[in-house]
Every structure is written in C-alpha cells, then in structure tokens.
Amino acid sequence: MPTSPNQTPDVDLDAKIGQMLLLGFRGYELKADDAIVRDLAERNLGAVVLFSYDSQLKKFERNIQSPAQLQALNASLQEYAETPLLITIDQEGGIVSRLGEQFGFPATQPQEFYGMKNDEALTRAAAEAEGKILREMGINMNLAPVVDLNLNPDNPIIGKYRRSFSADPHIVTTQALAEIEGYHAQNILTTLKHFPGHGSSTGDSHQGFVDVTTTWQDIELEPYRNLIRAGLADSIMTAHIFNANLDPQYPATLSKKIITGILRAQLGYEGVVISDDMQMGAIRQYFGFEQAIELAINAGVDILAIANNLVYEPDVAIRAVNIIRQLVNDGKISEQRIDESYQRIMRLKAKIKS
Questions:
Q1: What structural domains does the chain harbor?
Q2: 170 in catalytic set
C-alpha cells in the first residue's frame, strides 16, 4: 500500500497498531516467557495499566505488593518495551486508589473532598505529592482526574464513590486544573474522564448498558471545553454511555458523532483519546470484539484500553493486533487513520521528560 504524504514511512503498520493498545496483565514481576513480555518485545505494546485488585479472581493479587516491588516491576516493563511505555494507573484518590495503605502507600482523599474544600492550592499540593510517589514508582500517567459532574449523587459508579469534585462545572474545572498542574509539576501525564459525561447516569457501564438520554445535560461538556482551551488535556477517556440525543445508534466510545463530531470538531481537541475498558459490560455484552474495535477506531479512539481484569485473556493483544491489521487490509479502517493515532500517541509520549 503506498504511503501518503501524511504517513510515517519508517514505522511498519504492526508497530503503529501496538502503540494503540493499553493492556492490563497479571504478575508482581516479569518472566521472559510472560505474555506481557512478548507483547512488549514483539508487538511494540504502547501502554499498560496497573491494578491492585483482580476482579476475575476477586482478590487483591495483581500488580502491586509493595513500593520496592512496584518500582522493580515498572523498571522491567520499560526495559522490555521497544518504545518508551506509558505506565498508567487509576489513582484518583479515596476508594479508587490502586496504591493503597495496605501496600505501604499514604492514605488519599476522594476528589469530592477537594471539591468541597474548593481550595486550589490544597488540591495542587496534594496532586504534586501524589505525583512524586507515582514518579518514584516509575508510573508516568495517571488515569485521572474525573471531570464528571456530580449531577446524580446516587450514581452507582461516580457519586456513590465520591469520584466527582462537584455538580458545579466551574468547581470541577478549577479543581481539575489545579490537580493537573500538580501532576505536571512531577512530570506525570493525566487523563480527563469520562467523556462526554458519566455523572448523571443511574447505571454502571462496567455491568451493562447505560442510557443517559433523559439525564445528560450540555453543562457536562463544560470542564472539557475549559481544560482543552487551557491546553491542559493530555488525554481524554471516553465513557461507554448511550445518549440517543447525541448518537441514536452507538455508545460514546464507538460513536464518530460524539468523538470526532463533538470532542474534536466542536471542542477543538487534537490530543489522544483513550477508550474506557473495552471488556466492560456496556461494550462486551452488545458488540463483538472485532466490531467494537472497528467502530472505536473509526470513531476517533487512539488508544484501546483492554484492562484484562473483568475477564482475563493472555492472548488478547495479539488478537487485537491481528484484527486491526486485517481491518486495514480489508479497507474497513484506513492506514491514514492508524497513522493519525500513532502520531498523537508519539506527541503525547514526547511530553514526558526523561
């Protein structure tokens, strides 16, 4: 296939595809024959996500045991990686903190705590302190802050866990801005989530279909608009929520109308879009793996998150690479579309100072 002027001729297709995957894995340390090691060395895997709890095994045995162990694991991951790796974690604070006290890390407060205090200096200082820990552990990207508005305090996945700063988009914006500045001071990339807004939902997209058609409000876009304008959106994670008013056919992660139409065209976002976990019920129960991948990439997703936690598939990365390559060969995804994602990912990684 001829290379267009906008494409990167010196990197082959499979290597670009590998950069588009963010993968979860099991283990406190790496062994040469581990699937994750082969994915790093042979498939140019672009990103990993660390967990403390294994949802399938229902126990706290996954990637995190102690600070020293975690440092060693992350150093090994980078040694095996062909391209410098994004090592990511959900360290939002409060309940959603993978670096917990039981593993020797300091206690954290949920985002709601900082929203109620509404003290930007306090939030910035807390994020910088947390960022220092992440940096020392070898983690370079936090899958936070949550910028969902707390429009439904009974929301089973946002409000219930105190993950939102506030129902007020101004407070959410200023607190998220302070948090991002704190992380950036420690050279940690951040991720705004969950676009276009999960705060008004009455359901949990981990479990299945979540329809926000009657509850979602335009103000849920405000934090994204403000943070994009401020140049502080390193990456943005999609929500698997369905909103018939925005797209009558697909949930946000699979929606070109929402990702390309709203996030990129209306809000002017040019950075990396990360999917929420493609193995969550809202996707897995309604779409085949190949169909979901094709829709997500064509919608504008750059990095496909496959947490490998709700279900565990050691060979999922090679499956995904083979599927994407075949979709390109069949003309269902353009090679230019893959290259766009690759270029965005490389620009994001270039922001990490060595």
A1: 31-350 (3.20.20.300)
A2: no
